[in-house]
From TrEMBL:
Keyword flag Protein transport: no
Compartmental location: Cell envelope
Listed EC numbers: 1.11.1.-
Species of the source: Streptomyces phaeolivaceus
Dyp-type peroxidase N-terminal domain segment(s): 116-260
Domain of life: Bacteria
GO MF term list: ferrochelatase activity; heme binding; metal ion binding; peroxidase activity
Stated name of the protein: Deferrochelatase
Region (Disordered): 1-62
Amino acid sequence: MADQNLVEDGPAAPKGGRGGADRTAPARTTTKGSRSPSGGSGLGRERDTSPGNPGEGPISRRRLLGTAGATGLALGAAGGGAGYAAGSASSSSSAEKVTPLSSLGAGEVMFHVKHQPGITTPLQARGHLVAFDLAAGSGRKEAVALLRRWSETARRLMAGEAAGQDDTDIARDAGPSSLTVTFGFGHSFFARTGLEKQRPESLDPLPDFSSDQLDKTRSNGDLWVQIGADDALVAFHALRAVQKDAGGAARVRWQMNGFNRSPGATAHPMTARNLMGQIDGTRNPKPAESDFDERIFVPANASPDTSGDPAWMANGSYAVVRRIRMLLDDWEQLSVKAQEDVIGRRKSDGAPLSGGAKAIETTAMDLEKTDAQGNLLVPINAHARITRPDQNGGAAMLRRPFSFHDGIDAKGVPDAGLLFVCWQADPLRGFVTVQRKLDRGDALSKFIRHESSGLFAVPGGAGEGEYVGQGLLEG
């Protein structure tokens, strides 16, 4: 739960038809129509018809998102809160005029990109994390066929099309809704497929931490899939399609469901809050920073001799996945002041405690500033202090979590917290460095519990006509 903030991968250019999207461009969102069993229909662009911008063309994602903490597309005036604009059927033609989708449903993230989608894509409202183990008797051949199926299904669903002949129609009436599907490989995958020599050193198991209370049955796995969307049915539809595609080649090891604030739920785009009520993600690395790619992605020229990574990991990243239970009953017994001291930031707006009354979320934190009695305004064990890159040798990771709530037990205690997902070029320099520091004295540690864990190698995006992981499985 490091003190960092998620940002998008760049502006989007709305497209006007099913075949018009640039499949080689960086991950971004375009407007699309609702899906149908035959692959859906192309629709016109969403237009900003608000008073100040009458008919000035498509709404850019940069204008809609505005700040680094946005969770996805905000609803524009064209879509409104109702979800769909009014439409009509032609009286002189048998061809039906399709009603345009709202901006929420029309958002599309590209599948064929340099880096897999779901890494720098803005936070989505719904998410599923699922790990698979290859079935007994399945090996490299079955893995190739499975990744081919999964990649084609992901491409279709992310474009707002039906999954294939066995589509369940769960998301029949919806558009892409910014769906992303991301694939990764666990440590055990390589032995099961005879590819041990291609296993990255960075995929060595994570060390033990004092705060760990890990359930091994809900940790690790041969294969990992991350699904995100701004509509719950679209996300579940993708989860069901991925599970069905696994067939007899792989079985589910564990699966977790998450959520974030829905796009458009706030008056303006802002950093998300977690279930503790804290603004969570203020200092995430930003793609505009000169060293962003170096910190988050394996170099394009990856090789064991240069980066220490195999060539098939070029443009990829490593995902650390942790199910972190929040002890909400204990946390909520603290005063707001005590909660702020644990985090090091104001609960109301995320401003650093050292910033004064006029400070805002992005105000620089002064770690040496004291009050009249000489006490540090940001306590020495505050979470935001410990997780700062300049307190960890420059270590940084791109956090992209989901919250979760899996019910209330017989004692009335909520099983809730954070599905922590972070991305980095080197997990030893990223997650492990920061977590070891947190392990030695983070004030937040007594209010959270790490219950499951996984580390996965996520290769770069698939090119046109390719499937994810092809460089590994056929290289």
